[in-house]
Fold:
Amino acid sequence: MKVFLGRVIPPVLVVLAVLVAWSLVVRLSGIKAYLLPAPLDVVHAMIEEAPRLTEATLRTAFSTTIGFLIAATVGVLAGSLLGLSRWLERGLYPPTLLLQMVPLVAIAPLFVVWFGFGAGSTIAATVVVALFPVIASTLGGMRSTDPELRELFRLLGAGRAVTWWKLQLPSAIPSIVTGLRVAAGLSVIGAITAEFVSGYTGDEAPLGAIIMGSIKTFRTDLMFGAVLIASLVGFLLFGIVNTVGWMLLRRWHGSIRD
Amino acid sequence: MLSACLFSVFGCDPGTPAGESSGEAGAPTSVSLQLNWLPEPQFGGIYQAKLDGIFDEEGLDVDVVPGSAGVSAPQLVDNGNVDFAIVGGSQVLQLNDRGGTLVALFAVYQHDPHGIMVLEDAPHASLAELWADPEATIGCEAELAFVRELIRVHGTEDGAKLVAYNPPAFRSGVQQASQCFVTSEPVSLQLEGVATRVFMTNETGFDPYNTVLVTRRAYLDANPETCRSMVRAFTRGWTDYLADPAPTNEALVGLNPAMGLEAMALSARAQEPLIVDETTEALGIGCMTAERWKTLAEQLAGMDIIETVPDVSTIFEWSGP
Structure:
């Protein structure tokens, strides 16, 4: 209990301090609400728009989660494939770098043409944004496998598939988990960006469309609320990745045991 | 002290004019004018005034700042980052409802140029027919006032799906209809060989002024003569531009090469009936009436876009050219 409180209290205190400072800044400076709403105004807007925000959150969370899961699966498989062959790595790794460099905002409108409106485009954009960190971290983890263990597997006559499954993949898990943590945050960014141009609007708006609409109508309070919820979706995904990583590593990896 | 720090972060004190006069007798007054889009015929009269020295003759040194999709002109002028801006009529009421102090000085478009466009051979004969088609998707910004009005009039259930505004999706046929500025998207598509039809949204009776010159109340109170000079220059610039837009269009192409000369000419032609009508012939180009502003305010309040209908005499100033 003491350990738990020791971990929970510091971030809670920091958040409370930020909220108090934010409220004071708004109150003392007289900044107009459309520039910087007070925290209570944001909460009020969130309560007022709760039904719409709830539905929007479910839509965005769905696209984010599916996109993240696809990126995680494809990323681990692709990273593993590249890790098994230097030739493949040299041939395919540079093109995968493009995924990291691509300006999503510029190409997002085309996703609609390719994948249609709604979740299809949003999931595709999420995959594009989240895939590279998983590939890179998997490849890095595969490459850092203990060479002596690899030699041992070779001497024992293990094939590539067995070596990958029994040695390289487990060795790469700490690195993969790190990549997945990065991908979790990026997934939300990818989904929201895509929703700016590919989401349904009106009654079926996801968070990205609500954010965009709020900006256009000077509803900064609602915009802050929607952004906060989007961040929480990313935070939740990050927490799930952390938990899964902890479960996978707790018995044998130094970073967890310590 | 805190206020000073914050204003340095968020902009100037709204009560302090950003563009004071030079202080020297006879020297032009420097002012900044934020546009809400790229240089094109929508701002033709402004560039005409700039190029022909009309601003100079009115004692103004105007820094015309082009806009873009990410520039929020209403907030910039209200916050004191610029002295004047071009905004939509509905935005004046919406921002003021949220604490802004914008004052409209000159309305270029007497009629809202927004519309919903479909391909020429689309099966829909009217906006109502399009809106009722469950197979259709309409690209639009659903929070904008004119779309909210369309939703109010035509509903959203069992009809067309509203999706994000996305011109490539309309161009590719993924989307059957798209919101547009009648002077912009249909013109670009026409030049690409794609014929379209536009259902003007002002036909529903929701017809806000657009491309409106605004400043903030504190600036107007502190600089009434500068504002009058600005309105006079706008009147002269727009009158000259409407008489012969070609020379200014050539200059506009230099400022916005993505829009060619032919597109500029088509756009200028398309906007003329939005700028000149019976009212402007009686009251002067750029004119505004309390009745129109009041109607707009009541419509916005009826859609819960603004909370209260303001005293419209506080949101516009029009005393003739």
